[in-house]
Amino acid sequence: MSDGREILFDAAEFAGRAALVTGGSDGLGEHLTRTLCGLDCEVWFCGRRGEVGQALATELGPRAHFVRCDLSDADDCRAFVAAAAAGSERLDYVVNNAATDPRIGFEAGSDADFERILDTNLRSYVVVTQAALPWLRRGAGRAIVNIGSTNYLFGNAEMTLYGAAKAGIYGLTRGLARELGPEGLRVNLLSPGWIATRRQLAEHLTSADQQRLLEQQCVKEVIEPRHVTPVTLFLLSRAARALSGQQIVVDGGYWLL
Question: Which residues are marked as active site?
Fold first, then answer.
């Protein structure tokens, strides 16, 4: 009979492991990268802004490895995974996190707009995961977490194309969980609400938006990366070893509406 310890989440399990994080140099991805490195996990992360990513890697020390990558480019996605695999020879965790969320009216959206949104928000998840699978099979963690969004649940104006791409992540997660489960690989979806990152606060998330969210959420806290990272770690951990193909929403209870 278990004494209970084996079922508890233990952050120590991340020490000595290797993780791949897309969009890991800013926002939620940066917070996750910092946290994993702080747990002595080897983290390979990517972003488009080379100076920003390299500065973060230098700050975090030898366990942080930055690769400049445009995730809208499939070849860049594969090169990112190849660099991580060459450096660690295995992967324990993959977190598909990167996103682009332009506000574009449906009729105003061009083919190029839709392709860019799909390529970054959905195709990169497919390409990165395909390329990472041989290395995940060598690892011990054997967990994939896809970061989605609650946006597709609400149908927000000027974000129809973005919502369509995010909805695709749900289908991808469910299919992968079924297909990879027999190998002991787990795949889950974490869908946050509107996260108060530096970029969102600078470009989109006004004080009026924050007040509206607080009025409608069950939990009266503006969602920040620190609320989302612990749930991501749980989904990656062995404490969640019987959890796959699921969506967990982290939005303070807003979706209850």
Answer: 162
For the chain, the farthest-separated pair of C-alpha atoms sits apart, in whole angstroms, at: 61
Domains of the chain: 5-250 (3.40.50.720)
The structure tokens 């488009």 sit at 48
Helix-helix angle 50-60:27-38, to 10 degrees: 20
- What are 49-95's pLDDT values in tens digits? 889 999 999 999 999 999 999 999 999 999 999 999 999 889 999 99
pTM for the complete prediction? 0.91
Whole-angstrom Cα distance, residue 84 to residue 132? 9
Rounded to whole angstroms, what are the CA distances from 137 to 10, 49, 129, 202, 257?
A: 22, 30, 12, 40, 40
Q: Give the whole-angstrom CA distance, residue 144 versus residue 190.
A: 11
Asked whether 186 and 142 are in contact (CB, 8 A), the reply is yes
Instruction: Give dist(CA 65, CA 225) in Å, integer.
Output: 21
Q: How far is CA 241 from CA 18, 145, 237, 245, in A?
A: 18, 13, 7, 12
The total number of residues shown for the chain amounts to 257
